Structures are given as structure tokens and as C-alpha cells.
């Protein structure tokens, strides 16, 4: 990279973090002080588009260069299928591993979900709810969620990752990219307990660290999808699919066990992320071996 391109890369992080953290803090304040959940959700959506805006400002305004993102719908079918259904597979594997370690926390009556709905859900309604939401999360939600996810994918996988890998190498670039992506979420986690809540094992430090581990694993797989297809839509679909399915295993624990959700059963837990982490590390090491 030229000196000006390095300046542009630094400016990208300043804009992506600065705008996103303003949105996050503003949304959290609206939720905490005004109990305005709608404004909070809108702030989360705006946050997701901050990396995209940062890329456009740096490339088009500061450097006056093409954005350099692969917008074409292309790539082999197996990568599209992996993007669409892979998150569901990792979610299932992570939940199975978690409940294998903690079988006493498995609750097929879904008391967590029943309590969330005020205890007014019979068995038939519960089964119908889980079936409908599970099918929607796996089949339809990835196509819907990919549009807000695109705001992040353009910035992180399309712009940031190629430059980090060029400068620091494959493994170090992906490690650093995962940490950067994880830290970008920290204001939400510290202010309103994003992802893990506020009352959990090791709060808040353990959650911040585990989240960076999760982001490294997910960042690696999303980056690999973009490498293989050169189409930003593929990691956007995978990102959207992950967002759709991630919370589903939560219904299988009791409300009291939410204290341990930093461990699982959602794929963002320290135990339940292990299948995804193992694949991410394995594929990266395989790539490094091939390059040698």
C-alpha cells in the first residue's frame, strides 16, 4: 500500500468505529433512559451500515479510487450452500456439544421460552412455534438478513480483510480482523448486555473475550467464502443466516441457566463455538500449508 492508502486504511477504522459507537451509545441510551426499544433497534441497523459508509468515504472521497468490492453474483454452488446452511450446522453441533457437557441444562419443555411469553403457551403451540421459527431461520431468513449484513461485509470482509492479510499474513490477519470486529461491538455489550446479558459467569470481561474468539472464527469462515467466490453476497448470506439461527438453542435451557450462556448453548458460547472454531483454524492452517 502507498502512504496515502495507509492513511485511508487508518481513516476507515476511525470512521467505522466512530460512527458505529455513536449509534451504539445513542441506541443504548434510548433503551436505558427512555425504554425505547424501537429506536434501539434502528440504531443497531444503522450501526451495521457504518463500515460500508466508511469504505465509500475513504475510497470515493479521500482516495478517489474504485471501491474494489466484488459485487457480481458468482462462485460455485457449494459455497453458496455452505453460506446458507453452514451456520445452522454449526449451531446444531455447538448445541449438541454444550448439552453433552451439561446434560442437566437440557430442557425440552422450553421453559425459557414459556417464561418469556408469560407462561401462556401449551405444548402444541410451543411445537408449532419452534417448527415455524426454525424453518424460517434456516430457509428464508438468510435472504432477508443479508441486506443489513451487507453493510458490515463490505467493510470487514470486502475492504479490511484483504489489507490485513496483505500486511500481516493469513493467520495473523484473520486473528487481528476477528479482534477488531469483536471490539467494534463492545459498547453494546458493556452498556446493555448485547449477546450475553449483564448477569452471566465472568461478566463483563469473559463475555468480551469470548466474543472476540467467536468473531475470529466467524470472520475466518466469512473471509474464506469471499476469497473463494469473490462475491460479497456470499458472506453476507452467511452472516445473515448466522444472525437468524444463533438464538434458537437458547429455548432449550431453563431461565436460571442463562447465567451460563457465555458458555453456550448458542454458537457464541465458549463451548458451543468450538466446532466452528476448529473448522476455522483447520481451514486456515490448510491454506497456509498449501501456500508454502
Write up what this structure looks like.
The protein contains eleven helices and no strands. It is globular. The chain has helices spanning 3-34, 37-48, 50-62, 77-101, 111-116, 123-168, 170-184, 186-192, 205-229, 233-245, 274-291. It is an all-alpha fold.
Summarize the structure.
The protein has helices at residues 3-34, 37-48, 50-62, 77-101, 111-116, 123-168, 170-184, 186-192, 205-229, 233-245, 274-291.
List keywords for this structure.
about 290 residues; mainly alpha
Order of helices and strands: HHHHHHHHHHH
Mean pLDDT: 93
Spans with pLDDT under 50 lasting ≥5 residues?
none
- Percentage of residues in strands: under 5%
Distance between the termini: 23 Å
- What can be said about the biggest beta sheet? none
Number of strands: 0
Q: Could you tell me the radius of gyration in angstroms?
A: 19 Å
Tell me roughly what share of residues is in helical segments: over 70%
Structural class: mainly alpha
Shape: globular
Number of helices: 11
Outline the secondary-structure elements:
Elements: H1 3-34, H2 37-48, H3 50-62, H4 77-101, H5 111-116, H6 123-168, H7 170-184, H8 186-192, H9 205-229, H10 233-245, H11 274-291
Helix pairs in contact: 1-2, 1-3, 1-8, 3-6, 4-10, 6-7, 6-9, 6-10, 7-9, 9-10, 9-11
